[in-house]
Design goal:
12 strands, two-stranded parallel ribbon, eight-stranded mixed sheet, Rna Polymerase Sigma Factor, Chain: A, Rossmann fold
Length: 373
């Protein structure tokens, strides 16, 4: 493992907690919910310094630090740690894996206690609202009555919004990055192409596939389609242009093709096809509305908001963030909006940025009554 700097939180481990039964939005129930999570920093005696970090589609609970033997840190390590934007000398950070996923929390790969076999495609549909409800049980287990902040990008931003709506008195600050109040038809379309690729795989078997004969090709293509939407045209031109394929991947004419094939094939080794379908459906069905409907949905929130958008993000373009800002302003909810000029596309919120660090730190450190800037 590479040396760990003083700015890192060091070695961490993912823990799992059983939170009992969870009733779902569709009136179904999961009898024994397990949630994978990690924590960084210390919970203070008043239990009022906790920040919940919510991950995106393919993320997990490992947001910062290193697992033993790993060469790379968690997916948001640049922003979580001593002296960083989410300062672990000051805050207690919680990061959990969503239900319906495949990174330790209850999902299609989990054992159904009734049959003693994996749920696979019989796992009940879970919504963003259900994911947040499970997170609330996790927060309850720490006896935390109010979170100092909920923070997330992309699907994580949807979770943060849902937190503010469903638990208004329990969220002091809400940070929504590269996200939306509901998917557009175009956003649903990209996810639908991915799901159809999985379903068309000969190994799909209506979701009842075995782990030694998974729908690898379909999931790989789904990931390739998704990955295209995470990058910008400028980044793809700079990285690949019209160059020939790289590495050992020869069944394509261009470098961008070999890159996407590599991304797809490596994704299959760490993600489950059923979970991909479940989580993308949760994304597509998430809706707080637009216009007046969104204003009504946000009318009872009590948080301060920071909304971050990125100029080159064409998956969740800035106009969708501005819709959220407008609905908050209609309700006289304190909100700061920043549109960062980037060339990295949707993935910008995940990448190291001194400007983003400054914005996050400034918002979290603000404790006065005047308007934050």
């Amino acid at each position: 493992m590479s040396s760990i700097s003083s700015a890192s939180i060091g070695i961490v481990e993912t823990k799992t907690v059983n939170l009992g039964s969870l009733s779902l939005e569709n009136d179904e129930a999961i009898q024994s919910i397990e949630l994978a999570y990690e924590t960084y920093g210390e919970l203070n005696s008043n239990k009022d310094n906790a920040i919940l970090v919510c991950h995106a589609l393919s993320g997990d609970a490992h947001a910062a630090g290193f697992h033993l033997g790993d060469k790379k840190p968690g997916w948001w390590d640049y922003y979580i740690g001593p002296g960083k934007a989410l300062d672990t000398d000051k805050y207690f950070i919680i990061s959990s894996n969503v239900i319906g996923g495949c990174m330790g929390s209850s999902g299609p790969l989990s054992i159904n206690p009734i049959t003693n076999k994996p749920y696979k495609s019989s796992f009940p549909f879970v919504s963003i609202k259900d994911m947040v409800k499970a997170q609330a049980l996790l927060v309850d287990s720490f006896e935390i009555h109010q979170l100092f902040a909920v923070c997330g990008g992309s699907m994580g931003g949807m979770q943060a919004l849902q937190w503010a709506v469903d638990y208004p008195s329990r969220v002091r600050n809400c940070i929504v990055m590269a996200s939306t109040s509901e998917h557009s038809a175009q956003q649903i379309a990209f996810n639908e192409v991915g799901r159809q690729a999985i379903i068309a795989d000969p190994n799909w078997n209506n979701g009842e596939y075995n782990q030694d004969a998974k729908p690898r090709k379909g999931l790989s293509i789904a990931r390739m389609v998704g990955h295209v939407t995470y990058l910008s045209d400028a980044v793809m031109r700079e990285k690949f242009g019209r160059q020939p394929p790289r590495g050992n991947i020869k069944n394509t004419d261009f470098a961008v093709g070999s890159y996407l094939i590599y991304q797809g094939e490596s994704f299959v080794d760490r993600f489950d096809a059923n979970s991909y379908i479940y989580v993308t459906k949760a994304l597509d069905h998430f809706s707080l509305g637009l216009g007046e409907d969104l204003s009504r949905a946000l009318s009872k929130v009590q948080s301060r908001f920071l909304i971050l958008a990125y100029s080159s993000d064409w998956l969740y373009p800035p106009y969708q963030s501005r819709e959220i800002v407008k609905a908050l302003e209609v309700n006289a909810i304190p909100v700061a909006y920043c549109e960062l000029k980037t060339e990295e596309g949707h993935d910008s919120f995940l990448l190291p940025s001194d400007e983003q660090t400054k914005i996050l730190r400034g918002f979290l450190n603000f404790s006065g009554q005047d308007e934050w800037q």
